[in-house]
Design a protein that fits this description.
Number of domains: 2
Mean pLDDT: 77
CATH class of the largest domain: Alpha Beta
Low-confidence stretches: 4-18, 23-52
CATH topology of the largest domain: Aspartate Aminotransferase, domain 1
Helix content: 25-40%
Number of strands: 8
Structural class: alpha+beta
Largest sheet: 5 strands, antiparallel
Radius of gyration: 22 Å
Strand order of the largest sheet: 4-5-6-7-8
């Protein structure tokens, strides 16, 4: 059957033209992106984006935090809880979740959410706590706190509860939060 068929997916609508018994092929005008749907962050649906920003940030419940820390030593739990409080106080509009086995702080209204809008993560590896920054290589670090030599990710080891309240560490978290602001 000759005609035009429109198929919708999560990426938008694509038109296909079929002729006789030939398989459907994308129409040439669609290959250049003329009919692509725009992502809200690209200015396509401003009303929806503003509604997302007005929602309170996603936070973990105390029982979810307890479950996440259930198998950790008491001193490690204390460091993690202090770091968590510091991050939430430093960037109050950050969302919180468990991603990649770590407490993750991000902006949900930034494209690619917990990756594109990543602020920091509180990771526990081999009984040690680290505050890591996915985009850490781009952060200003005048005090030389950041460690790591990867392409983008950097971390700061945090051994004690008192170290979690270090003003230099708070400045890094605030800088990461400002960097991901839409």
């Amino acid at each position: 059957m000759d005609g035009i068929d429109e198929q919708r997916s999560g990426l938008g609508a694509v038109r296909f033209r079929s002729e006789g018994n030939q398989p459907a092929t994308p129409m040439k005008s669609d290959l250049n992106g003329a009919e692509r749907m725009r992502h809200p962050s690209a200015g396509g649906d401003r009303e929806r984006c503003s509604t997302i920003r007005e929602m309170p940030p996603e936070r973990l419940s105390p029982s979810q935090i307890d479950d996440h820390l259930a198998s950790e030593r008491r001193d490690v739990c204390g460091v993690v809880r202090r770091l968590r409080r510091m991050v939430l106080d430093s960037v109050p509009d950050a969302c919180e979740g468990i991603r990649y086995g770590a407490l993750s702080y991000f902006r949900a209204d930034v494209p690619y959410g917990s990756i594109g809008g990543a602020i920091c993560m509180i990771e526990i590896r081999r009984g040690k706590v680290a505050l890591s920054f996915i985009h850490g290589a781009s952060l200003p670090d005048p005090h030389g706190l950041l460690r790591g030599d990867g392409k983008a990710k950097r971390f700061v080891p945090v051994a004690t509860r008192d170290a979690a309240d270090d003003l230099r560490l708070i400045a890094l978290v605030r800088a990461a939060g400002a960097m991901t602001r839409p």
